[in-house]
Design a protein that fits this description.
The chain is an alpha+beta fold. It has two domains: about 240 residues, 3-Layer(aba) Sandwich (Rossmann fold), CATH 3.40.50; about 220 residues, Galactose-binding domain-like (Jelly Rolls, Sandwich). Helix content is about 20%, strand content about 30%. It is built from 13 helices and 28 strands. The strands form seven sheets. Strands 14, 15, 16, 18, 19, 24, 25, 27 and 28 form a nine-stranded antiparallel beta sheet that branches. α2 crosses α3. The longest helix is centred in the N-terminal third of the chain and has 14 residues.
Amino acid sequence: MRDGVALSVDIYRPNVDVAVPALLSIIPYAKGDAERIKQARWYAARGYAVILADMRGRYDSDGQWDPFDPKHKSDGYDLVDWISKQGWTNARVGMIGVSYVGWTQWWTASQAHPALKAIAPIMSPPDPMDNLPYQQGLLKGVFLDVSACLSGRVMQIIGSEPYCGFRPRRSQDFLHTPYLEINRQRGMLDAPWFEKVIRSNLSSSAYFKAIGYTGAESWSKITVPSLNVAGWFDEDQPGAAMNYIGMKRYGATPEAKSPKLIIGPWPHATTSVSKVGNVDYGPQAALDLDAYMLRWFDHYLKGVDNGIDREPSVSVFVMGLNKWLSANDWPLPGTQWKKFYLTSGGSANTASGDGVLAKSPPRKGGSDSYIYDPAHPTLSPYKGGNIEDGALDVREAEADKSVLAYTTPPLDRDTAVVGPIKFRFFASTSARDTDWIVHLVDVDPDGHAALLAEGVMRARNRDPEKGGAFNAARLSEIVPDQVYEYMIDFWRVTGSVFRKGHRIRIDVQSSYYPYYLRNLNNGADNIGLVNAADAVIATQTIHHGPRYPSYIVLPIIPKGKLDSE
């Protein structure tokens, strides 16, 4: 690299005498993983040189490891530059990889090396405040598990369970405060960067600002087309749509402004399944991703006219209908944005309460309140720990009085909800800070309540100058018991049909443990530095009615549109 640090690479090449295009993966995990080697050989057999690189400070590479070191950007550029100068390549480079390896693609693409011609960031996160480590201000449990795994130079494995065996320990481990100490408390002593992650809880911090890539300034520097793939049950879902929209609007070249977006009924890191949790979406739900990416790279690296550039740029799978919809934009053209208003008789607590989700604005004002005690958080239902468990039944959580539920009457027709979701609401808290969490739930006639989508926001991240929308860069003041407007853009959206006779429900709460770490409500600028002894029990109130019109905006796809696609 330009600073003299050497990175270790494994190279898989076809046995030919001509220069071929190259595919690069820059990996924080073991580049010698059996599945990774199998994939590399598969592409080599189809005419590509595949380069697997250990990231700076990981495994066989030199340097110090830090997952958000801005040197990862220049390392990507330098690797592409080195590859382009090897005699066995034709100086046309693409990049592949899933999850974090999607991050490395975007970081590299933001440096605009002329030999980089296409990327395929699969299930890639956006910037750190918009998904991982922080989801609109809430610290996510999965990142703490990943942090433990990635401490030191090699994977830190303590058991056979997911995330290096750390997942079963979440409920106990995440009770430790301050959160700054959790990684060390778990025995991970070689991760000085973890403290930077916790202390840098805003996008304006020098630490996160240096590694950021989403936004007009960075997107406008990217010259290559991108294949963006996500799942409806994908931990890192928001990155794909965010980058599709950003590249289409700001890309530096016509190719960069021609991204693709695919969203299927998948969990994180795979597209080959058709069953997620207890629901089978049919064989058409599975996607042979390597075969699709081969067409992608054949076109952009080999110049093959296989038509992939002329196919619709967006393909999304609609659950319940169990079919794919295709279009040339996201959100889907023809989407009808429907408001559903919150109303009640003042007792919307639990799914058995009197909360109603109405199509018309309520004529009478009202409110609903609940107690959020950080010592007794509402529990998330994920047995595996993450949303890869699928559309789980959340009735147990909805029986907690710290959850408000607002439900429509039974639907008189099938209703397809596909696309971005917004929740505008008015709320007050007796504390100086708290979290707001809202869920979209499909309730069948038997009462089964399937969680489909989610939006969250730390209260102090609301921007008073933008209608209460999330501001990643700065905090605002929350005065106890004062009513504030909030606008939450759901980070995990859906593509699902609510069948006739089903009901649409939204749940509002302030914790979902251990999926999110608890906000201790004491108003500190950084929740990661707070001790449990300083936690505050809060009374939370959701207001609704003519003065405080609280509502959710759902993206409804007309039946005619579904039939025609």
